[in-house]
């Protein structure tokens, strides 16, 4: 299995990256997956270049992932422009079939709804599937990151297991899966 | 498997109900599930009564479902107050573990984002899992309902299958699944 | 000038009502306005009746207001179904020209974005004008209500004054003000 | 009076820019204002530079405007990452007191809710005041731009006039206008 972390902080090696890494570590079985980390801070000079082989390769890597965590600090109650600029490079449905987890970090709870009301709908618009609420992490809780990320991971794991149960009862897709927008 | 349809139209037996029924029929394997339909138009007199045995029973039925479709006509660009009033009766995380599909019907595409940006986050707030975009159906397309619902169902089936693949690689939840809000 | 408060709490005489009253008192010049309070808890039995003379009169009263405060406790991260059911009774653009302030109360900051991302767009969809952020009040701060509402009122007053400055430079509407949806 | 247009299209001199220009022309009295246009396509190389004198000057110009139009093509149902990256450079409340109009252009009505549910709350988070719905323009209607923008402008003018009426009845701000977040 392949997993990818995309970090939208304009500053490299951020706490937001650490939060996403911990969440993946808690969620997936050790040794069962390949993980790639894309720190968008390393790519700001090319994020608006078009075309760009380097950016295209990064976009493809994420689109081919089974699981992708999109992590951003909270800027103006929402995800960063840097993360959005990366996602803007996809065509319609560019993340079709990817299981995606939206993560925001922030100073306090004021913008705790952000990953659920802003980032999740954006990922879903691209065709990704979001298995539950977005994960919001208060930056001052880094000492408790293991425990908090562990609880979130347990909830995502539980949700995924439930979805797997429903999947077993769906009709064999007589119609080939359409990638056109539902709406 | 148990499936439930909850219809938020104050008028009974609406087209919105028909749209939801067709979506379920296209999504699930025939004969593999029990379906209950809750037409909230039949319960407006008790929707604000507290406590209410009848409403509690309906709430419980939905919460115990494997799959629930929540369908509403578009009122003021969003779900109806009637549907929200039903969902308001749940405690926090009252739909934990339920796979939920948000459906809006509307006159044209103007409010096509509604089920994805309004109803989906509401269901997710209650702990439900939404396997993709919301389904928006233009009411004037009833003659093509079978085909359009079939395409949406195929996309949901495809998404659920992908999620099942990811579920197989999650860690056995060392931490018991927390039902407390992630955020 | 006429001002109206609409409270969406299914329980009458709530703290949410008190919060809205204090906000209006801090915002408007004493003695310069008539205030009517509509506590929707008193009207649950008719909120889904159609037609209803009583509800129509309430709807009209709000639509004719210069200023209306819409106040709701936070239910599932958003406004209540009761408040939405009241607003659903309006035709398109039913609140055209009304200056509207969205107010949510809640237990902590987790859902502080609610009045800005959920209630404000709903009021705007109805043609109302929202002069700034929604006002979110943490219920445990009732002892500091005067001060907190005073600060919010000062910000709204400042915003309204700024808007008045811009209004002076708009073209005489050669086209009669359209009430059809912008979008 | 000063007005500014900020265009978030990564391609310069776009139709989105033309739409915003026409809206301003229809809204404001001829000869009564200075207009500056900031085409962010000209600044992609510095948008993530920190600090940047050039970007700081642009940010300041917009923050000092009486009226600012923020215009973006629809990317993934929302504003572009480029526009968000520009807005991310502001501190909290960086657009306090600015009257701001959100504009999206798009191929059809599917994402017509975008400027109202995505861009408007973002501008409001920064302290700006949005006098009504966002303006969504279907790109194929360029031949009717004058008329469509004229109707939207008339509605904004009408809204601003109403707000001016309310402003006259607000209390002299006993508390100095707070720039701290209401929520």
From TrEMBL, chains A, B, C, D:
Presence of the UniProt keyword ATP-binding in the record: no
Q: Does the keyword Flavoprotein apply?
A: yes
Keyword vocabulary terms for this entry? Flavoprotein, FMN, Oxidoreductase
Q: Name one Pfam family in it.
A: FMN_red
Instruction: Enumerate the SUPFAM superfamilies for this protein.
Output: Flavoproteins
Give the GO molecular function terms. Answer: oxidoreductase activity
InterPro entries on file: Flavoprotein-like_sf, FMN_Rdtase-like_dom, NAD(P)H-dep_FMN_reductase
Q: Where is the NADPH-dependent FMN reductase-like domain?
A: 1-139
Question: What protein am I looking at?
Answer: NAD(P)H-dependent oxidoreductase
Recite the lineage of the species.
Bacteria, Bacillati, Actinomycetota, Actinomycetes, Micrococcales
